[in-house]
Description:
A: 128 residues; mainly beta; CATH 2.40.50.100; 4-stranded antiparallel sheet; B: Rossmann fold; Dna Ligase, domain 1; D-amino Acid Aminotransferase, Chain A, domain 1; 3 domains; 5-stranded parallel sheet; 14 helices; globular
Amino acid sequence: MKFNEIxxxxxxxxxxxxxxxxxxxxxxxxxxxxxxxxEEIVASTTEQSNVDEAIFVVKSPLVGLIHFDQSxxxxxxxxxxxxxxxxxxxxxxNDIQSPVTGTVxxxxxxxxxLVEFDQELFKIRIDG
Amino acid sequence: MFQKILIANRGEVAxxxxxxxxxxxxxxxxxYSTVDAQSRFVELANEKICIGSAPAKKSYLNRxxxxxxxxxxxxxxxHPGYGFLSEDAQFAEMCAxxxxxxxxxxxxxxRQLADKDKSRLLAIEQGVPVIxxxxxxxxDDELIMQAKEIGFPLLIxxxxxxxxxxIRAIKQEADLLxxxxxxxxxxxxxxAAGSFYLEKKLVHxxxxxxxxxxDGQHVQVLGDRDCSxxxxxxxxxxxxxxxxxxxxxxxxLYKYTRQLIxxxxxxxxxxxxxxxxxxxxxxxxxxxxxxxxxGVTEETVKMDVVQQQLLVADGxxxxxxxxxxxxxxxxxxLTLSPCVTNExxxxxxxxxxxxxxxxxxxxxxxxxxxxxxxxxxxxAETRKLAIIKMKKALEAIHVSxxxxxxxxxxxxxxSQEFMENTISxxxxx
Lengths: 128, 429
């Protein structure tokens, strides 16, 4: 799948009422969550336009204190549903799983910080 | 005094509380759901935090989210406003466990007083009259006996009824058995349980309520309000004071109020609601929180009751006095009517009267929350003058992009029934 094909696909999905879409085409898997109608997935515009690549932004599902796990460190390869952080709310630790398989590109908050609902936590490059 | 308060609410009441905090030099934290991110109350607060998605259950009713925000932003107190968690004993308890002041009475009192059945029993215990009614009825012979005792007209009410279903008015004994049968059938099909009870039907009843402020030892009475104009049990127009009471009746009303609440060690604002029919009062229920219609009380007692609420939560004492009311105040609730569009394109109000709103041009009204758009509050020396002021104010309101009840408000305020003040809770509006 080419970059502009993904882009078209995402534009199409954005106009549709789905809150959650998973599309698999060969090695490429695209997961879109648009419950809040925010851009939860953005196609990368890197210089290597011949490489199919997408970046997924993981957002906080609750208010709490974030605790990073070693497995969520920048550069780490992760698989879908792997725990990459925990958010502590009322002394309960809630696992944050990666919705995609890929590589952690960036941590967008600091360890131990208070995160609000929907706050961007991680950027993950979807491997494919 | 509190340094920082979190407001666990949205819209106009959140703004109202923020303004009271600003006057008392208290910092504020606004919490909001994702659809309220652009709302004015979020801008007005010193700090803001998104606590969840649009459904109230995920945000404004999300106790854990609210407390995590409160604890980590180091607030001393949480103001719940009205609705949402304002009468949630569990939340009040959780706040206490976290060392945060819940602005309202402690959880045990909320359980006792905000619960309809428990407060009714307390009223009976304290010698405050309640609407005569029966226990649950299961046999026909009980039905006739209890009905005769209560007298006609009466209401047959399904135990699990609601929304106008499972309720029948019965004028005379001859209609009793058939009415009971219908209610039983309705109840069985709608609520899966057929038990019912009887209640005296009050004819031409008015809804009159008393505003109180307690410090745990003393109870101050901040006048009364008449909220008889209702639409499906939702208040539409509220006034202070009630002008149908004689001085004697008013002192009887305040006596019942004190009888009910004086020994409860109540801290905070509260409203005791009564029905008034054939010159008698009947206790209805108590609200252990700030009310939507507090504005008309503020106009007549010349007090900022939200500031007072914050002060007593911080330990300020009040006296046992009854505060004098001056003049007359009327509030109209401008609410959303069903419509296909939801973006406000025009939202003009007169500037010479008090208007409380959380909206502005460009806002989209979310279907997730209640439809209150604005409260229009007028004060004048007499009821007649206040009505004239309100009529002018309503004429100067222009709202586009959404449908509202503005026309209905204009019709009511100009009606003979309203001018002559012969309205009741059964008035067709």
